[in-house]
Structure prediction request, 181 residues.
Amino acid sequence: MLMTQRIARGFSLIELMIGLAIAATLLLLAAPNYAVWAADAQIRAAAESIVSGMRYAQAEAIKRNAPVEFVLDPTTGSGGWQARVLSDGTQLQVGVFAEGSVLAAFTTAPPTATITTFSSFGGVLSPPDVATAPITAIAVTFSGAVANTRPLTVLVGGGRTGIKVCDPAVSDTTSPRFCTT
Prediction:
């Protein structure tokens, strides 16, 4: 009696279907976390862009020994910022939020502020009139339909030295991520 051996090659249809069911289940479990991660990445990108622009404007003010403005356009999706020389309006650098933070939303303090001017010493200049008070804080949030995102705040001036990104949810006053008022 001759017996032929059957050599198994590849996967059976049942094995393939089980593998696909496991992969689909893992994707369904990971999707909400991925959405929060992507939203938080947009918030971080926007905050880092603002801080980069402010630090550039501050460094240029010191380098040029002349006031340099940081101008914010907080329009969600199409806004951005620019650094420009105060005396003649020469544009030094531009940032656009659509490059990685399309759904980031911005709230400035004071509410109508859009400009911060850095002096030749690197400090924030206070304008003579209150109507054009400089930006002291920018809250960066996510404007999309994702819940549980982590907003960030950019702090500048207001008695502070330097420019700082902080997390308003941190309550530990000894943490470097704590937002000082």
About this structure: The first strand starts at residue 68 and ends at 73.
